[in-house]
Amino acid sequence: MNLPFFVYGTLRPGEVNHDRFLRGRTAHEEAGRLRGAVLYEGPGYPYAVETPDGEVRGELVTALPEAYAELLARLDRLEEYVPGDPRNLYDRVARPVVRETGGATVRAWVYVAAPAVAARLRARGTRVEGGDWRGMR
């Protein structure tokens, strides 16, 4: 299923990985919010950790149809995500994301902290207040 991507860290416009991975591969980018998650600081990038409350701000990115498969593979490599691998730092999951303009909800791929990483962050991580990684930098 060709879902859009919700990005909240180094893939956002103006950040280090946006041009490397997304430039020329997207049809549309718009502000969005992921409810049911909070952000934690990572080593130069954030982690979204799922929780009953909280909200993460980022961008909803729609890939060009002809670039979708390549982009999905490149983002999985960037996030070191391999389906079913217990060593993953992130899991790619489909979650509802609210469009900033208009408030419509769409399903999107989101890279969230894998269970072991999420447990460590909840226990001793530094939470990003306000759910916007740009706001802390």
UniProtKB/TrEMBL annotation:
SUPFAM superfamilies the record matches: Gamma-glutamyl cyclotransferase-like
Pfam (any one): GGACT
Top-level taxon in the UniProt lineage: Bacteria
Stored InterPro entries: AIG2-like_dom, GGCT-like, GGCT-like_sf
The Gamma-glutamylcyclotransferase AIG2-like domain, residue ranges: 5-134
Name of the featured protein: Gamma-glutamylcyclotransferase
Annotated organism of origin: Streptomyces tendae
